[in-house]
Amino acid sequence: MPRAMIPSLRARDYLSDIKPIWCPGCGHFGVLSALTKALAYLERPKHEIAIISGIGCSSRLPAYLDCYGFHGLHGRALPLATGLKAARPDLTVIAASGDGDGFSIGGNHFLHACRRDIDLCYIVMDNAVYGMTKGQASPTTPPDWTQSALTPRGTGIPAFRPAAIALASGASFIARGFSGDPHGLSELIAHAILHPGFAFVHVLSPCRTYRPDDQSSWKQAVHPFGEALLSETGTGTVGDPDRQCAPALQVQDDGLGLGILHQAAREPTSTSTAIDAGRDSSGDRGRDWGPDRDPDRQAALNAIEAELEA
Fold first, then answer.
1. Can you say whether the dihedral through the CA atoms of 247, 109, 258, 251 is positive or negative?
2. Residue 118: CB atoms within 10 Å
3. Which of 236, 254, 252 shows the shortest CA–CA distance to 244?
4. What does the alpha-carbon distance between residue 151 and residue 138 come to, in Å, rounded to a whole number?
5. What phi, psi does 185 have (nearest 5°)?
6. pLDDT tens for residues 173-228?
7. Are 175 and 201 within 8 A, CB to CB?
8. Using alpha carbons only, what angle is made at residue 163 by residues 160 and 169, rounded to the nearest 5 degrees?
9. Per residue in 3-60, pLDDT tens?
10. Which listed residue, of 77, 233, 249, 270, carries a Cα 20 to 30 Å from 119's Cα?
11. Is residue 52 within 8 Å of residue 79, measured between CB atoms?
């Protein structure tokens, strides 16, 4: 069906009839709200969207959306999403994971997805705990967290730093949002979907059951990314995603800075070249590949930029 014939959709139109079974107050409700708002803003037809997930509380997301979805194996959302995007570059492919699913058993896939820079959006809902398996420490849990029976004295292990690892591994778009700010998060997700390459969105999404204090403490602690560094140096722009300043900012990242942390031009790879060849041989299938080849996509990017600067 031509896009002109597809009626405009509201955020709620992207929701399925299945009611979320997350705990009351779970941060993931905010992520679901932000994602549907982003899809509605971008006017993505539901039949052109695919949500791929692994295992965990966060990975229930495909069931709650009225579009194509696949609930895969633990830690394997990214290879599934990569394969789908390679086969169907016309689709908007979004992978969803949690901190355990994405950074522990799925950590190896995370590194190589960043390196390959395939055009997909990866949303990780980080609550710094294994929620579905009853509250064990996860890769992003602080080393002094003592509320798990398995680690009563804390893990003693430094927490995994997703944004820094993504930057070191070659991701061309890195952002961080907070589930308590669905509007701001929806803007970041829209930017990530439009970015022509691997777009990683790290979402602070507190668990009210096993880490109940995080909702209020994170809400008070989050701040625009780079704010502390810029107040010390007096130079630059808050949230400036410039490729040269990103490494310096990452060194002083406290894990609570929000916004676009890093954005770089997509560099051609053999994988992306092969997908572009598939796009060229399949007519309109790959019209969504890159703003330079899609005026609608570039117009949407410009609109978001204007909104963020307002």
1. negative
2. 24
3. 236
4. 11
5. -65, -35
6. 999 999 999 999 999 999 999 999 999 999 999 998 998 888 889 999 999 987 65
7. yes
8. 95
9. 555 558 899 999 999 999 999 999 999 999 999 999 999 999 999 999 999 998 988 9
10. 249
11. no
